[in-house]
Amino acid sequence: MRASPWWRLLVVAMLLPAAAALTPCHAATDPPPDTPATLSAMRLAHAAVVGVHTQAIEDARSSQTLGLNRSGSGVVIAPDGLVLTIGYLMLEAQQIDIITEDKRVLPATAVAYDLATGFGLLRSLLPLQGVLPVKLGSLQDLVPGEALMVATGATADGEDSDVSMTRLVSQRAFSGSWEYHLDTALFTSPPVTAGTGNHSGAPLFNQRGELIGIGSLLVMDVMGENRLQPGNMFVPTDLLKPILTEMQQFGSSRQSRRPWLGLTSKDDGGRVQIVRVSDDSPAAQAGLQAGEIVLAVDGSEVHSLEGFYKKLWARAAPDAPVRLTLLHGSDIKTLELQPQDRMLLLKKPAGI
Known about the structure:
Blueprint: H1 5-21, H2 35-47, E1 49-56, H3 63-66, E2 69-76, E3 82-86, E4 93-99, E5 105-113, E6 119-124, E7 147-152, E8 162-176, E9 180-189, E10 203-205, E11 211-219, E12 231-236, H4 244-250, E13 259-260, E14 263-267, E15 272-277, H5 282-286, E16 293-297, E17 300-301, H6 305-313, E18 322-328, E19 331-337, E20 340-341, H7 342-345
Antiparallel strand pairs: 1-2, 1-4, 2-3, 3-6, 4-5, 5-6, 7-8, 7-10, 8-9, 9-12, 10-11, 11-12, 13-20, 14-15, 15-16, 16-17, 16-18, 18-19
Helix pairs in contact: 1-2
């Protein structure tokens, strides 16, 4: 039987000073964390963590890669029951439930999905009595090696919420294969691989109980540079602060209105290789094929996913046709695609 989260919190709080002392990035003059204060901050933060369970619309585009039923975590960030999570959990969802620490299953509605950052916002339709929203922290205060806490929410089938200790390994850019890029993401290790899978959307807290990130992925290269070390990638909440009001008002941020081609790609030794072409996408309609190499966007060479995405998104007329120069075997060809607005293609639940 798994230990109670409160006992785990106590153990984590006791380990934090030792973890900090072993970190070479901490100056010798830095005072050790105040364990009672840290435990109190953790308890308050943990109380705001919820489980998230969603069911997508039957014919949702995203069901091909994410499935129809999805489970993860989220955290309350406002007194009105606003919950921050990772957006792919609620993408095209027709039913959303949140599960409180005491196993209450409450209906929720979608508030926003931000394609650019990956954040999702939900709101409980019933009062979250006794739950205080967490404060948003900043990655500016973090140093590599710092001990942090990850909390995962309870599940509808009876699994308890849980907490784990991890450490910050790096802050660096991240390019996703699915036309996604962050200039700064947080990478932690050891990895959080909760048996429930609820690390998706799991909040990452500093030792003051402030929210600094939302869990997105389990990765195998937290150090980058092709060094094998498993861990997690978190989207920093610094990215949420300037767009939070906009997301609540409009369901997304302006930066989410960007051209989409429907490609899954990867960096391949200074080249961008197409791995998969989404059905009924601009790329499929233009005849792009898996295995082809993207050499240029509108005549401008690209050598990485980051460069590919940024050239695509920075065009003066994002809705205008785009020319991709491709290497197919030993042949070079140019195809013209008509980009689409991904946000307009998604099936939207009530509330967005």
